[in-house]
Write a structure and sequence with these properties.
Blueprint: E1 3-9, H1 13-29, E2 34-41, H2 45-55, E3 59-61, H3 64-69, E4 75-78, H4 85-94, E5 98-102, H5 109-123, E6 129-132, H6 139-149, E7 156-164, H7 181-184, H8 188-204, E8 208-216, E9 221-223, E10 229-231, E11 237-244, E12 249-255, E13 264-271, E14 274-279, E15 285-290, E16 301-304, H9 327-342, H10 350-369, E17 373-374
Parallel strand pairs: 1-2, 1-4, 2-3, 4-5, 5-6, 7-12
Antiparallel strand pairs: 7-13, 8-11, 8-17, 9-10, 11-12, 13-14, 14-15, 15-16
């Protein structure tokens, strides 16, 4: 097999980002398998057709199940709301299709457990799966992980992770499916807090083992396009503290009402020998402090992570020519295609997605009960 036919379910924000990534991965990374944009699935034939023409897909289906029956589709790319992830992913894996599923993996731990179990069974047949935590693929984030793993900041003592946006700061912002618990599972917590949890765990190599949390919804009703209002059934913001498997203290914030913050995923890790800091709004930069340096000149220094020696960066432009949000999807697909060709399980796996889901569930349980809540351990 030299090509992989892609069948994508959904074509809005994530569908556009994924389409761009699939189109660019071949020219820049030359993966061992070439993706072919075989078919796009969307419920509305007219809208799906327009998206397919704009984004470069060869065919359109109005039922995602049709993708599973197509011989020209070997991989299902799930870009739909969370309430559909489990059904689509399990059916695709059982049909022998590789699966990439957007985060969070599911709307509940039970759904995520079902998906992870299906992924294990599929892997025994050579069918691969991955959850889309694309921020792992930012060169600055992979460098941060390497610095921690190499001991450059010593023993990790404190992790601070924030993901702050403001698109719901205005009480007049319209209601969308992301504010409906039945479709989204949770609000800021699952939508962007999941990224903060995964990024913090990825950089440190440690998992969150317990949390104490608060959730709040500041605007209880939102206007519906065309008139009227709808009740918001998810959180606007989440704040929680935690402990990691390595004994570090951790603090997390996720907000979609943080006025002035557009897309601020921030990770700061303080260790016994130094610290590092990353902000998605300046995603080509990593700030690093080596505590062993002379006190007269010591301090955080900016590393521009665009050199050929930095992971992924060498496939793109000369040093100093910056990468953006869209490149993270290209990197994700390059790694996924390489793993499929090699017959290895790509990361992050569905098991990794399940572990993040367990953290999110512990946050919700803690916020509801007002108590310290251990994160359930995966078996």
């Amino acid at each position: 097999m030299t090509t992989v036919g892609i069948g994508m379910v959904g074509h809005a924000f994530m569908g556009r980002a994924h389409s761009h990534g699939w189109r660019s991965v071949g020219p820049f990374f030359a993966p061992p398998l070439t993706p072919v944009l075989a078919a796009l699935a969307g419920r509305d034939a007219e809208r799906a057709g327009a998206a397919a023409r704009a984004l470069g897909w060869a065919a359109v289906e109005t039922d995602w199940k049709a993708l599973l029956r197509r011989d020209d589709v070997q991989l299902i790319d799930i870009c739909t709301p969370g309430d559909t992830h489990a059904e689509i992913a399990v059916a695709a894996l059982e049909a022998g299709k590789h699966v990439l599923c957007e985060k969070p993996l599911a709307n509940s731990v039970a759904e995520a457990e079902t998906m992870a179990a299906a992924a294990v069974r599929a892997a025994e047949r050579g069918v691969r799966s991955m959850v889309g935590f694309n921020y792992r693929r930012i060169p600055a984030v992979t460098l941060a992980r390497k610095l921690v793993a190499d001991g450059r900041i010593g023993t990790v003592r404190h992790v601070r992770a924030q993901y702050l946006q403001d698109w719901l700061a205005d009480a007049g912002a319209p209601f969308t499916w992301r504010m409906d618990k039945d479709r989204a599972g949770s609000g800021a917590l699952g939508d962007i807090g999941a990224h903060a949890v995964d990024a913090a765990q990825f950089v440190t190599g440690q998992t969150v083992t317990g949390v104490s949390a608060l959730l709040d919804t500041f605007v209880g009703e939102r206007p519906v396009p065309g008139g009227g209002t709808a009740r918001v059934t998810v959180d606007d913001a989440a704040v929680f503290i935690g402990r990691t498997s390595g004994g570090a203290l951790a603090s997390f914030e996720a907000s979609r009402v943080a006025a002035g913050r557009k897309n601020a995923l921030r990770i700061e890790v303080a260790g016994s020998a130094g610290s590092l800091f990353f902000d998605l709004e300046a995603l080509n930069e990593l700030w690093f402090h080596d505590a062993a340096e002379d006190a007269a000149t010591a301090g955080f220094r900016r590393i521009l992570v665009t050199e050929p020696v930095h992971e992924y960066a060498g496939a793109w432009w000369p040093p100093g020519h910056l990468l953006g949000y869209e490149h993270t999807f290209t990197h994700q697909f390059a790694d996924l295609l390489t793993a499929i060709d090699a017959g290895t399980d790509p990361a992050p796996s569905f098991a990794d997605g399940l572990q993040v889901q367990r953290v999110l569930a512990a946050v919700q349980d803690s916020a509801a009960g007002g108590a310290w809540t251990p994160v359930e351990r995966s078996v």
